[in-house]
Design brief:
The chain folds into two domains: about 1-195, 3-Layer(aba) Sandwich (Rossmann fold), CATH 3.40.50; about 205-310, GMP Synthetase, Chain A, domain 3, CATH 3.30.300.10. The protein has ten helices and twelve strands. The model is unreliable at about 145-155 (pLDDT under 50). The protein is α/β, with parallel strands linked by helices. Bound molecules: xanthosine-5'-monophosphate. Xanthosine-5'-monophosphate binds next to loops. It comes from Actinocorallia longicatena.
Length: about 325
Amino acid sequence: NWTMVNIAEESIEAVRAQVGDRRAICGLSGGVDSAVAAALVQRAIGDKLTCVYVDHGLMRKGESEQVEKDFVAATGVNLKVVDAEERFLDALAGVTDPEEKRKIIGREFIRVFEAAAREISADGDVEFLVQGTLYPDVVESGGGTGTANIKSHHNVGGLPDDLQFELIEPLRTLFKDEVRALGEQLGLPGEIVWRQPFPGPGLGIRIIGAVDRERLDLLREADAIAREELTRAGLDRDVWQFPVVLLADVRSVGVQGDGRTYGHPIVLRPVSSEDAMTADWSRLPYELLERISTRITNEVREVNRVVVDITSKPPGTIEWE
Ligand code: XMP
């Protein structure tokens, strides 16, 4: 794809000119935007870029490994991984209110990222922060170049004054489909390039009720089954997002084997959409829904019921929280 080759080369040149021999950091979220931005800047300045991946323990099955292994293998990027699961789970203990969860996750994320940025800066000043801002983000925020705040996949504010960076935003003129094409051009793994949008607070807002490790593990298993079967059916690129939600505070009666069970329901929420502002529930084939339901109830302990959400947005939102 010639256009993409040109866009990639021009952007790499522009970043090189902007940064010179100074240093930059980039926060990876597991999403396509930050991954493509980081890969591009890595091509431009190599080891002078350090990426930070905060593992908050709220990711889906295999996603942290995708960043820590596959992304690094594909790009050769310098990566600092911060395992912060325990810290996030402690902070979230007992919290059920969705906005409260978001606030806590956002706050902890900033703190952990800040500490990592300070550590990286300690051996030589870091002057730039790479962000995966896309053209629609630029338009939405009124078009100005912002001061350095971590791109709000957590919808939270900026870094403290002593950690001010100049921004590198190599995707500022691009739309999502162009970013994916660029990601392919840069040799990124398909699982990252074609990843569906995933909220910053992760599975934390897909557990209705308080978040703990056991519940996260249940949800991760159910979610992995749904994703695997969707992909196997060849429909993963037709569905905009497919939240799988654990109703952790609800129990219903079931019968499994020769016993009565009293377990949790899982909600499947596949939607089609253009921009997440409105959405329609996806009419997935019955056979696919049946396979997902059978596998989840057979393979996921404590889950004895699977339901499908057939609400459009509006009035429903895509996420349950
Ligand atoms: P709703 O649920 O409002 O979601 O229909 C619209 C889109 O936004 C995503 N979403 C979030 N993304 N932080 C994020 O980065 C959040 O707190 C958050 N909440 C919802 C959601 O996945 C969908 O794509």
